[in-house]
């Protein structure tokens, strides 16, 4: 922790334990250290305000959420920023009146590009005066999430057979404070249906579930804070001279740990927001699936809200049932093109998009290849257990492909290349095969768990039919 190369990433932490803290992740430091009190104050105010509205005027609670959210945006970012947001909302609402989907896509993507492509992004941010550490994050976060929500509104309005939703519905949707700056994105149809419900009833033990989840998130925050004082997993990859001296197992563990941390961060940040949304009687997008449980590219995502948005309006819209290889290729390329624009075009994002798009399509090609007659007949002769073993062997390879394809975006391209070279070239065959075997055992456990859950779900479904 006293290494000179790590001076920027490791700062003073627990003085009484003599430990320094890994502060390489700006988002985590912002949420739970630098601006913790401001975020707690704003979200606590929303919870209190929302509870009062739910008890007194439940039929108008969406309007109250909108007013509180707009005032919070006004107070934190100023009038000019609020006017920029409203102008984009007005543009996309005007486009929605035409009820032409292609026009909604073109206008929405142009608005998104105006924040993500230079010099348009800097030109708009230049209107917002003031200077505080969180300003850029709030500006681009609120702006880009606003565009995604407005596109969802426009596309849902285009599909509506009779009439169109009002601009008031769009503003209620966009200025819901918990989702405004950091997401997740809930598609307009789901949000509108849920906030329009007048009878606010909770399921059995729902409050208990909310309290348990809140405690789990607090526990996860404490655990990550402890972890950052002892394992500097985010800062280590920045010094290639240091990581080159690590063993193959250490490098593999470091790469895997970076992905696990990114999942934990997403699960905690979206989990905190989702807890507040559930208190408001909403059913928000769930946190992402644990990275350790992923061995299929089709299920890989770190933001379930954006994933649901992309699947509904791009991937499933073009790919339909995903059986046709040409349609799947077009759907995946288009999806990753939109994702690239959403993340902000740059070299690392281009590389990340290309390799993950290839992984998704290659997975389908392999699947189609082994569905051919001879292979299908061979698998039919195998027992269920043996079939799962063979699939787990491929799943283990897929797991490390997912890890290596996502490391450039989370760490650096040089670190990803170093890990790839050590695992596949210099570490072959001992390190390569031993790490693959351990991963294979893990995938087997996951597949067994999925099999048991599927059996239980089937039994529950059969029981419901009998009743």
Automatic annotation (TrEMBL):
Q: Does the keyword Transmembrane helix apply?
A: yes
Compartments it resides in? Endoplasmic reticulum membrane
Pfam families assigned to the protein according to its UniProt record, in alphabetical order = MBOAT
| Primary residence | endoplasmic reticulum
User: Where is coiled-coil annotated?
Assistant: none
The answer to keyword 4Fe-4S applying to this record is no
**Topology versus the membrane:** Multi-pass membrane protein
Q: List all membrane-crossing ranges.
A: 28-50, 62-94, 175-193, 214-234, 254-277, 392-411, 423-446
- One MF term in GO for this entry? acyltransferase activity
Q: Which PANTHER family match?
A: ACYLTRANSFERASE (PTHR13285), PROTEIN-CYSTEINE N-PALMITOYLTRANSFERASE HHAT-LIKE PROTEIN (PTHR13285:SF19)
Family as reported in the entry's similarity comment: Belongs to the membrane-bound acyltransferase family. HHAT subfamily.
The name this protein goes by in its record: Protein-cysteine N-palmitoyltransferase HHAT-like protein isoform X2
Q: What is the lineage of its organism?
A: Eukaryota, Metazoa, Chordata, Craniata, Vertebrata
